[in-house]
Amino acid sequence: MNKRYLRQMEVSEIGMGCMGFSHGYGKIPEREYSIRAIQEAYAYGCTFFDTAEVYGDVLYYPGHNEQIVGEAVADFRKDIVLATKFHFRNEEVENGGAVYDIIRKHLENSMKNLRTDYIDLYYLHRVNTLVPVEDVAQAMGRLISEGLIRGWGLSQVSGETLKAADKITPVSAVQNLYNMLERDCETDIFPYCVEQGIGVVPFSPIASGFLSGKITVDTQFSLVDDVRNWVPQLSRENIAANQPVLDILNHYAAEKGASSAQISLAWMLHKYPNVVPIPGSKNRERILENLGAWEVTLTDAEFEQLEAALNACQIHGHRGHVETEQKGFGRRQP
């Protein structure tokens, strides 16, 4: 697979979001299935794996997803870029804990779960307004100097917050919501990140599965632990209203002999040199299909035509990339 850079770190140009093995899409697979799926993704050429300390803690226990990923990648740990995330619990901050000490404790727990003595990319999962982002950046710089992390990132942030943090300790990557239906990042995040060499790592790059074309107005989501129940584009009325986007994708998919999901990923790969999407799925076939998007190439003319067609579409439903945290952490958000 082709390679890209998250500032200083080389990764496969498509990564793997591992959340679905513990949380977010209803019933999870058997542990061994999840481990084999991650290993097959690596065998295919994926070298970038994403998890978080909270994935799985709602129905299972803290670190559930990290432990699965850690076991899966143990034999090739040194050959991949491993990313995980932490968040501040309000009580940690309100009790007067030092920012560095709080982050260090979270990091040590994640390293134990992941069976590693360093993390390649360590994200602040959501901004907490009780903690100045500049203080977080200083602590991350210290962790980098100590060799415990190679780089750090921010998730679901504004351009203003990113710039403030980047001035203190250079940011390696921003993990924000970005796909054909959610393009807020094109205004402030991408221009700054391209200029500074910061990677942009879109979560939900296939719009929670909508852009695959496999979700219809008749699709029933699990009532237990399925984030798709609150994704605006996946309401019955918005699935129908956004059909023109799928029609565009289906046209290019037919021409390219690809899936619509692959076309949506190829679109962003063509558009930005620093974008590294991390499609997530709990299904092995979908995982390999998504990774296969690196082989789907759009010509400049095809891209311009596709972009013009998308720009002419009115999008129904919007999640946005604003800092949703304020005080506390939305535990059910990816």
Automatic annotation (TrEMBL):
Alphabetically ordered keywords of this record: Oxidoreductase
Matching InterPro entries: Aldo-Keto_reductase (IPR050791), NAD(P)_OxRdtase_dom_sf (IPR036812), NADP_OxRdtase_dom (IPR023210)
Positions of the NADP-dependent oxidoreductase domain: 13-309
Signal peptide: none
GO CC, alphabetical: cytoplasm
Gene3D superfamilies hit by this protein: NADP-dependent oxidoreductase domain
Molecular function terms, GO-annotated: oxidoreductase activity
PANTHER family linked: AFLATOXIN B1 ALDEHYDE REDUCTASE, ALDO-KETO REDUCTASE
Protein name: Aldo/keto reductase
Organism of this sequence: Candidatus Scybalocola faecigallinarum
